[in-house]
Inverse folding.
């Protein structure tokens, strides 16, 4: 059984609620009010269910729910403070929120034009189940040229050997033995049906697919072992394949129709200026990263590129379209979608950037179509956007506070004297950590851990924490009790367990506990040997104290009301999952905004159950 969280990818938050057995109760009641904000039971349930970093071993569920509510209240308090400081009016904030808004508009359009139009009949399910029980072993000859594929087909009909013809062709490289075909292997159902009608050692006529033409030879047929499951599980698998195929078909048809009469181009000069900046950034990556198959520009990288480009260029029209999207709009699009390439070679980067520009144009056109239909006025979209905007503003202000925390040598020495030279037994822990501001990185990391990859190797590739990068994620021993949220998490883990990703001020953190010890005399931890680690530990400690004190002050300033009776009624399932949400027409984000755990501030207040 896995000891770390999985990143689940879903199309709809509703679907996972139904799969988990969470059914709507009376969720419109407020369980907390903060200034002019309210947190309903529905908001709490949604946010809690997809914020797994709050569910730790040894915690009672009621206690976890309270801590999560206090952290949500803290988020709203800091959002109020951010608005009071005018952070919501900053150009960077408005650009980021506008990009997010267009993303949600596309998702609403997708539901209207694709998701809501999917109909799956009983006959389709029955036919799909029959096909799912079989596994075909095949070889394929392919060509983009219909004339060539029919010439090959006539040779086969004249008695030439399929395997001999295949051996002379480039597609044979990936077919040393055979390819496996099951239900859903082909995007085109007609092509799939043609294969599933064949007998062993026979071949199909030329079949037209999205990528060109193919001739398929069946070399063998066997039972699909994945079908050896309960009937309900089997039908869910079949349903998922058929649904995905219908989604793809409906999406292709709709996008083709929307773009049928449009010719949209990007500004060549601006494109080349951005290409230069991105190429420079990719070439500054470490040798270890550049040797990987996939290069990823982080949110930090893209924000730094944004800061380096001239304002005039950023505000210039980048794509010639009715909404006049600027270069700034495009870079914020990249911040949400990510930028990945398999090489720092300029021609490869150019092709990759060109691909992202095409996706941006497609997404922009779809967003404008959604706006024309009034989908930006959807209440679901407004709720989604308000939730993300509050979280964004709160984290913007918290990140600003984090960056401005300074530590003097005297403070660090005093911290060391208090924590490391006491003549009493001191428990210390050691961890490996991967810190990154891109959630998609953790999808890759967790998949690699699944395959048996070493945590240290992955940390050296993916962590953005400079202090631990050279040590392959190794923190060195430190006292957990005084090391902020990381320390709180580690104190609940067993050696070898992995937890996360957890939201921290600098990004997301995946943590593995590798050792624990008790020192009879903690003075053995020498100051100079521990200085770099001490700075991180003390900064977390200082940040926690500052934020908890400030949150209590904000609560007193804005006023809060809570209803513990309503909180107790909210049903949640304590599962450790961090959910990613697919966005219609492409892209994905966290299922819900990640909440930074801030809850000890409540101990500084007298808080009656004072919501009616």
């Amino acid at each position: 059984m896995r000891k770390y969280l999985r990143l689940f990818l879903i199309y709809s938050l509703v679907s996972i609620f139904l799969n988990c057995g969470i059914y709507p109760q009376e969720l419109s009641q407020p369980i907390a009010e903060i200034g002019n904000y309210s947190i309903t039971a529905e908001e709490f349930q949604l946010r809690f269910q997809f914020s797994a970093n709050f569910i730790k071993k040894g915690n009672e569920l009621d206690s976890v729910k309270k801590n999560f509510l206090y952290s949500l209240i803290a988020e709203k308090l800091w959002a109020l403070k951010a608005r009071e400081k005018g952070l919501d009016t900053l150009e960077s904030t408005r650009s980021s929120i506008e990009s997010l808004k267009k993303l949600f508009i596309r998702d609403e359009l997708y539901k209207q034009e694709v998701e809501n139009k999917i109909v799956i009949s009983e006959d389709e399910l029955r036919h799909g189940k029959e096909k799912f029980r079989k596994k075909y072993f095949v070889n394929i000859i392919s060509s983009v040229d219909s004339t060539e594929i029919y010439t090959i087909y006539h040779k086969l009909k004249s008695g030439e050997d399929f395997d001999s013809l295949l051996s002379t062709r480039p597609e044979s490289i990936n077919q040393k033995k055979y390819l496996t075909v099951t239900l859903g292997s082909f995007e085109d159902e007609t092509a799939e049906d043609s294969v599933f009608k064949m007998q062993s050692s026979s071949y199909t006529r030329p079949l037209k697919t999205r990528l060109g033409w193919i001739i398929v030879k069946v070399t063998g047929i066997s039972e699909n072992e994945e079908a050896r499951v309960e009937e309900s599980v089997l039908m869910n698998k079949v349903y998922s394949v058929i649904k995905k195929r219908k989604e793809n078909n409906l999406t292709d048809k709709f996008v083709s129709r929307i773009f049928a009469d449009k010719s949209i181009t990007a500004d060549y000069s601006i494109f080349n200026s951005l290409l230069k900046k991105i190429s420079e950034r990719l070439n500054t990556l470490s040798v270890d990263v550049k040797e990987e198959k996939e290069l990823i520009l982080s949110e930090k990288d893209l924000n730094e590129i944004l800061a380096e480009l001239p304002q005039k260029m950023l505000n210039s029209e980048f794509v010639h379209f009715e909404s006049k999207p600027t270069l700034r709009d495009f870079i914020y699009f990249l911040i949400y979608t990510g930028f990945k390439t398999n090489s720092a070679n300029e021609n490869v980067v150019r092709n990759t950037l060109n691909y992202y520009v095409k996706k941006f144009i497609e997404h922009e056109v779809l967003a404008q179509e959604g706006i024309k239909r009034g989908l930006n006025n959807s209440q679901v979209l407004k709720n989604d956007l308000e939730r993300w905007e509050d979280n964004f503003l709160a984290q913007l202000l918290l990140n600003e506070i984090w960056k401005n925390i300074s530590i003097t040598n005297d403070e660090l020495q005093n911290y060391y004297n208090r924590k490391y030279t006491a003549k009493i037994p001191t428990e210390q822990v050691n961890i490996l950590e991967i810190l990154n501001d891109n959630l998609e990185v953790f999808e890759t990391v967790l998949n690699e851990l699944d395959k048996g990859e070493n945590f240290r190797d992955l940390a050296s590739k993916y962590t953005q924490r400079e202090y631990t990068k050279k040590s392959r994620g190794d923190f060195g021993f430190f006292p957990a009790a005084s090391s902020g949220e990381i320390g709180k998490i580690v104190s609940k883990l067993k050696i070898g367990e992995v937890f996360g990703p957890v939201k921290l001020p600098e990004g997301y953190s995946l943590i593995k506990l590798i050792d624990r010890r008790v020192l009879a005399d903690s003075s053995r931890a020498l100051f100079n040997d521990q200085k770099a680690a001490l700075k991180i530990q003390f900064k977390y400690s200082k940040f926690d104290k500052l934020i908890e004190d400030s949150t209590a002050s904000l609560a007193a300033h804005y006023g809060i009301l809570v209803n513990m009776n309503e909180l107790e009624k909210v049903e949640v399932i304590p599962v450790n999952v961090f959910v990613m949400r697919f966005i219609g027409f492409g892209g994905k984000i966290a299922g819900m905004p990640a909440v930074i755990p801030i809850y000890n501030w409540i101990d500084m207040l007298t808080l009656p159950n004072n919501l009616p």
Residues 258 and 365 are 8 Å apart (CA to CA). The chain has a mean pLDDT of 85. DSSP finds 23 helices and 15 strands in the chain.
